[in-house]
Amino acid sequence: MMNVRRWIGSAWSKLMDMPMERKLLFVFLVIIILPLTFIGYVSYSNYTNSIEKTTMSYSANLMTAMMERTDDYIDDMMRISSIPAYQAEIKQNLIRSNTYYGERQPANGGDKVQEDLNQVLLIQRGIQSSVKFINNMKRGANVVYIFDEYGNGYYSTESGAVRMDLEQSYNQWKELSANSGGKAILLGTEAYTSILNSKKYAFTVVRKILDDATLQPIGLIAVDTDIGIIEGQMVEMDKLTQGISFIVDENGGIIYDSDKQHHAKSIVQAPELLHTSEGSGSFYATVDGVEQLVMYTTSPNTHWKLFVLIPERELKSDSIRIRNVTWAATFVSIALALLISTLLSYALTKPLRKMMRLMRTVQEGDFSVQFPVKRRDETGQLGHQFNRMIVRIDQLIKEIYEMETKKNEAEMFALQTQINPHFMYNTLETIRMVAELNDDEAASDMLFVFGKLLRYSIGEVREKTVIEAELEHVRNYVEMLNYRYPNRFDLRIEADESYWQIPTLKLLLQPIVENAIYHGLDDRKAIMRIVIRVDQTDQFMLIHVIDDGLGMTPETRERLNLSFAGVDVSRPSRGGIGLRNVCERIKLHYGHRYGMQVLEGPEGGTEVVLRLPLSQPDTMSDE
């Protein structure tokens, strides 16, 4: 979670650091691309779902109508197979055929009875005329066969679709209908060879023919049904669904297959379809290596299943075309938006870029530039204020220059009227030599140290010095105090020699030491210890002035630190004026990053920390 927040923060920071032109371009693109992409995706998804639902609903209606028509057709075939039960002529002829061929069956190894051709022709004509009548009753009945109990078949057809292996088919039909009790049996599609030596496909309705008096079988009727009747309806449905369809019987045999690859085969060859249940439904499955929508419905009469397989690519072809058109329009819109956004962002940021160039010119010291104000919008108002600011800065610089000129003239006049410092140094040196001649060594040493203090402090306060000179000046100052208060002050300096030649301002440390002695002296201690430590961080050189005196209250330290930060405090702190002067000098010379801070000392006294640059630039102001 923290990594995600860090990444978001980093991305947001990079975005905020981008130029204004890129920010505007990014915002324009986000505002345009996101809605267009979202609308395109939602439209494509909704359209795809709508197409799929519509196709499924329409296909389901077609399949239901198809199965109803097939059921009606099979019902008609069933009724046709029941005609001999109501035709006395057919039964009489079948009884004659059974009697005729029964008499001519060899008995006990005897000789076969000679055939009566007239009787045979009479029987054939009687039955065939009835068969011809049955064939003409319903379109789609390929061949109607009527057999007697001895397997003699009678048929009448002009299509040439009579089975070549009729005897084998009869044996199979007789066996399947043995226990049917006179009910019609619907057999699945079979492939057979016709007498014209052509391959045919047909599903068959088989029924026993019973004698009315004895209810014993006297024959068999088989109606071979032309699957072409189903094919016409299936082809029409395949055109509408852009798929393939097939009908499967309740044993898994394929009645009809619209691509004619699985006629008279078993659905076991497509195991992904075996889990379908009764009724109707749909699911997606991979059939023959292709992802397809499988829809099915079941006939309540025959329990046959009608399957329709629609390839997913065909199902979604319209939606894919719409998707391609939508994405093409989206990309064109994005390209136009990118062009317009680029031009617009460039036009909006052009005045800002011009103002930035003018600011760089001002930074180089040329205050004669002017921003051309052409509009009254925010950019125009900003340009107007920029022009006013440049004029005002130019006026202030001229005023400061005049003030500095007058100040320098006043300082020159004061220098001309003051006593020459060399006169003071020479006079002190003369007094020191007289003290030495009179053997007064203490007075001589005091005058010598005082002369060094005077020489360092009377010089120009703003001139450059180094850390070593500042530390030496503090040593001389504490030595003079120890003449006045013998051995009362212990000064310790902890500074590596590598810091000694670093440039710094003059008279930074002596006022702090003086403030520590005069405001922190504890009469209860025989010796007051003062430590000056010099060290550094990555950005600052730090000088610590630490004493073990009386210290300051937290309120006093807080007011001093606020005053160092530039806050106007209502009541000046004790001893704070000298410290604030030192802090202000540091800020004036080095900038507001530098300055001072007052802390509580490690031994209860006070610690003053000076933050200075690690190395002073050569261009330090000589104000």
UniProtKB/TrEMBL annotation:
Residues 419-616 form the Histidine kinase domain. Its EC number is 2.7.13.3. One of its GO terms (molecular function) is phosphorelay sensor kinase activity. Residues 346-398 form the HAMP domain. It holds the Pfam family dCache_1. InterPro entries: Bact_2-comp_sensor_kinase (IPR050640), dCache_1 (IPR033479), HAMP_dom (IPR003660), HATPase_C_sf (IPR036890), HATPase_dom (IPR003594), His_kinase_dom (IPR005467), Sig_transdc_His_kin_internal (IPR010559). It is found in: Cell membrane. It comes from the Bacteria. Its main location: membrane. It is a multi-pass membrane protein. The chain crosses the membrane at residues 325-349. It catalyses: ATP + protein L-histidine = ADP + protein N-phospho-L-histidine. Keywords: ATP-binding, Cell membrane, Kinase, Membrane, Nucleotide-binding, Phosphoprotein, Transferase, Transmembrane, Transmembrane helix, Two-component regulatory system. SUPFAM superfamilies: ATPase domain of HSP90 chaperone/DNA topoisomerase II/histidine kinase (SSF55874), HAMP domain-like (SSF158472). It is an enzyme of class 2 (transferase). GO terms for cellular component: plasma membrane. PANTHER family: SENSOR HISTIDINE KINASE YPDA. This is histidine kinase. It comes from Paenibacillus cellulosilyticus. The lineage of its organism: Bacteria, Bacillati, Bacillota, Bacilli, Bacillales.
